[in-house]
Design goal:
By secondary structure, the chain is mainly alpha-helical. Helices cover 47% and strands 5% of the residues.
Amino acid sequence: MQRIRRKLLQLDRVLKHVMEDRPLAPVGRDSPAKAVCDALIDTVRVVPSQLMKSITWDQGSEMARHAALSVKTDIGVYFAHPHAPWERGTNENTNGLIREYIPKGTKISSDPVFLNSVSQSLNTRPRRIFGYKTPAEVFVEMPSELASTD
């Protein structure tokens, strides 16, 4: 059981990285909350249900449609406390990695080719926490490991 918990924690860290080969949807100005909700619904549908049970978000207005997301995906949405970045540690770490490609204050391109190249780079970057495997490798291996009963 401890092994499965450890693997689920690792998977949580992987899933919070942008998934490889999954196009990123730029959020429009008309209705950011709807665009974010729709993009998340499309994204989480490709993740096996046993591997994604909840999403922890900050207090941003882009998650105003969190109830619709929960209903359509059967995934719980939780909100971190304001000014508590330690409740979203993986997110904060990922933001730091993304800042290597898009420095703070830089206008973020909505070009899917550029965004997917950043995603590809992050997903193929070895991580110490995964024994120097990449998030993409861990993600591919994870379902078969969770299915094992030992």
